[in-house]
Each structure stands twice: as C-alpha cells, then as structure tokens.
Design brief:
Blueprint (H helix, E strand, L loop, with lengths): L1 H23 L5 H8 L3 H26 L4 H18 L6 H15 L4 H9 L2 H32 L3 H21 L2 H7 L5 H14 L4 H7 L3 H31 L4 H25 L5 H24 L4 H28 L5 H25 L5 H28 L18
Helix pairs in contact: 1-7, 1-8, 2-3, 3-5, 3-16, 4-5, 4-6, 4-8, 6-7, 6-16, 7-13, 7-15, 12-15, 12-16, 12-17, 13-15, 14-15, 14-17
C-alpha cells in the first residue's frame, strides 16, 4: 500500500514535470535553433510565449473533460499528443511549423491537470494535500533545473536531441501511468475505505459526471476559492519572473559564471524542496488552507524587502538570500493553495484544477513576458517584478484571513474550508 502510494506520487510528479521541462529545457538551444531555422532570436523567444498561452488555455478544457469522461484515457491521450509533437519539432523547417508543433506539445502536456481530479477522487483532503505538495514541488523546481539539463544535452549533442529526450520521457510516463493511474490500482488502494465512504464516493462520482461549463464559470463567481487560486498564481508569477530575468542579472550584471549560476539555481531548488517537506512532514497536521494563508501573509514583508533591494545597489548575497526565502514560502504555498481551493468543490476537481492551471501559467506568462520586454539586465527590474507578484499574493492571503474572521458560519471546518480566524 505504502509502496504503491510512493510510486503513484513519483509518476504523478513526472507527469506534471513534462510541461515545465518542455518550456525551459530548450532555452539554452534558442540561438542554435534560430540559426538552424534561419529565423531571428525574437521568433524563437515567441515559441516560449506560444507554448505558455496554449498550455494555459488547454488546462481548463482538460479539467472540464476530467469531470465528465474517463480520466486515465484523457491522460494517456495527452501523453500521446505530447510525445508525437515532441518528435515533430526536429522536423520543422520554419518558425510557423515550430509554433504549431509547440502548440500541440503544450496541449498534450496540459493533460496532466487531470491528475488533480484523480487525487481528489482517490484520497481525503489531508492525504491529498500531502500528495499534491510533493507533486507541486516538481512543478516549481522543474523551471529551475530544466535549462541545466538542456544545456548538458546541447553540450554533448544537437538541439534536436533535446526534443527526442522529451519524447522519450513522454513514452516513459505513458507506460508508467498504465500501471499507477489505472482504475484497477485505484480499487486496490481504496480497499481500506469504509462502506460509508464508498457510498459518499459513489454519490460524488454521480454528481461529477454531470459537471458542465456552468460549473466552470461558477468558480469565477466564488471569491474564496478564486482568492486561493490567485494566491498560488501570483506566487508562480514571481517564480517565472525570476526564471525570465535571473540569467541576465546574475551572469551579465554580477558576472557570475554559467557554472556558478547553475549552482545558484540548484540552491533555489533546494529551498523549494525544503518548503515542500516542511509543509508535508513537519506541518502535516495543519490544514492546507491555514498553511497557504500564513505563508502568503509572510510574502508581504518579503515583497517590501524586494522593493528595498530594488532601490539600492544590493549585493548579490542579499538577493540570493531573499530569493531563497521566497522559494521556501512558495514550496509551502503551491500545493496548499490548490488543495484549499479544491476543498470548496469536492465533486469538480477537474474544473477547479483547470482554473488553477490557467491562472498559474497566464500570470506566469504575463510577468515573464513583461520581464523580457523590459530587458531586465539590472537587479532593480527583476526585484521590482518579484516584489509586485509577492505583494499581490500577500493581498490575496490578507483577504482570505479577514474573510475567515467575518464568516465563521460559512467557513466551518465541517465544510473543509477555512477555519475561523481565532484558530489561525
């Protein structure tokens, strides 16, 4: 049982890591690809934005479909699309062909959002939150390590081999998913569930099958789950701001060597893992909504620190420490925010996770795009955008905290929502 859960977590983490790898693994190869396709570097950078946009829009679609159709079939179909489109990228001969292949690659990768609905259906909120914590650690760590992986492949091979590796990972994920995410495994793992819980699950599945576009639209009308979604989304926006601008700032401004830059990225990945483990292990008994709100509130003073560092000639050490603290908090926020949002919709896990993914990557694309357009070659621009994203996330947490104080009857623990403010 325990072994199956660990394997389930590892495979789910791999599924969620596919798209971040596809987004960032080929970044070191952009100049080489531009020369190979005889296009400008701006055309190549546009392929990143095209992927992000398609990925953001495809997630709500898969989320809605997950509440109506077989989740495993949707997941496997997406993996097939991801693998075939990855193989198609090395065959393109123009920027338009690259954009088309990247769009389908993004659509295939977006099928991973179905796993949120699988987790919600399979586990209770506390256990599901722990699993999502480990999974989301992959999502936020992957953008930091993907360029290093791509750089090593490019060092020993060609840019085409980056996409062959992505296709191979897609095939590997497909095969593993057949064993770990099948209906047969779910029935085995649910053998310890009581009869009353099975009745509840049966009712949940009956309601879930009737989910529609109206359920998706209704999510946007509910301020509390949307606040949790934007909390996680702005946290991701700060991360993408760092990913988009850190190379210019660290390497060009502070003259950090590419090798040492990769070590600094590894340090941030370590911080993310630490935050995730802190949430899943040390603070396991604390409700996900509490952890998300408290970590989000801590982003408030951190945003002030970012703004202060932006206005002064901050040394590299101070920036590294501030970013390290941010990554610890983000490791706590990401999984707990989606778990808290999903607790409001126990029968529409696909729809709510689709909205979460849309918000996450849409805000990430907006902030990273703004960083690119502003030519962030000094710490001030990068730190200002990270401060803005953190301040926005802190505002969402502040709203959630004040609402938990004023609506105790609506936000009771029995509904798995936010507990009264006195328990925070």
């Amino acid at each position: 049982m325990q072994h199956n859960i660990k394997l389930y977590i590892l495979v789910t983490a791999l599924l969620f890591g596919l798209s971040p790898l596809a987004i960032d693994m080929y970044l070191p190869a952009l100049p080489t690809m531009a020369s190979s396709l005889s296009v400008s570097i701006n055309d190549m950078e546009m392929s990143v934005a095209v992927f992000l946009l398609a990925f953001a829009l495809a997630q709500p679609v898969f989320g809605l479909l997950a509440d109506r159709f077989n989740k495993l079939n949707l997941l496997l179909s997406g993996l097939v699309i991801f693998t075939l489109s990855s193989l198609a990228v090395p065959l393109v001969e123009s920027s338009e062909g690259l954009y088309l292949a990247r769009i389908f690659q993004a659509i295939g990768g977006a099928s991973s959002v179905v796993c949120f609905a699988m987790i919600q259906q399979k586990f209770d909120i506390q256990k599901g939150s722990q699993i999502i914590t480990y999974v989301m650690a992959t999502v936020v760590i992957a953008p930091l390590v993907a360029p290093m992986i791509g750089g090593q492949i490019l060092k020993h091979g060609s840019w085409e081999e980056i996409f062959y590796v992505l296709a191979g990972v897609g095939v590997f994920a497909f095969v593993l998913s057949l064993f770990t995410h099948s209906e047969k495994l779910e029935s085995v793992n649910s053998s310890e569930v009581t009869k009353s819980d099975k009745v509840k699950n049966d009712k949940r599945e009956q309601v879930t099958s009737s989910s529609s576009l109206a359920d998706f639209i209704a999510i946007f009308k509910q301020p509390l789950p949307i606040a949790f979604i934007f909390l996680g989304g702005f946290g991701f926006a700060a991360l993408f701001s760092f990913v988009a601008g850190s190379a210019f700032v660290y390497i060009d401004f502070f003259k950090v060597s590419p090798e040492n830059y990769s070590y600094l990225l590894g340090l941030n990945a370590l911080a993310m893992i630490s935050g995730s483990l802190l949430s899943a292990k040390v603070l396991a008994k604390i409700a996900p909504n509490k952890k998300a709100i408290i970590a989000g509130l801590l982003l408030g003073p951190l945003s002030f620190l970012f703004f202060v560092l932006a206005q002064m000639q901050a040394p590299l050490t101070a920036i590294v420490i501030a970013v390290f603290i941010f990554n610890i908090l983000l490791g706590m926020i990401s999984a707990n925010a989606i778990s808290a949002a999903m607790s409001f919709y126990p029968t529409q896990g696909g729809a709510i996770s689709g909205v979460f993914g849309l918000c996450q990557f849409a805000l990430g694309a907006a902030f990273s795009g703004a960083i690119s357009l502003s030519h962030a070659q000094s710490p001030a621009v990068l730190l200002s955008f990270m401060g803005l994203a953190c301040a926005s996330a802190a505002m969402c947490s502040t709203y959630l905290y004040t609402r938990s104080c004023s609506e105790n009857s609506e936000l009771s623990t029995e509904s798995n929502a936010i507990e009264p403010c006195r328990s925070l």
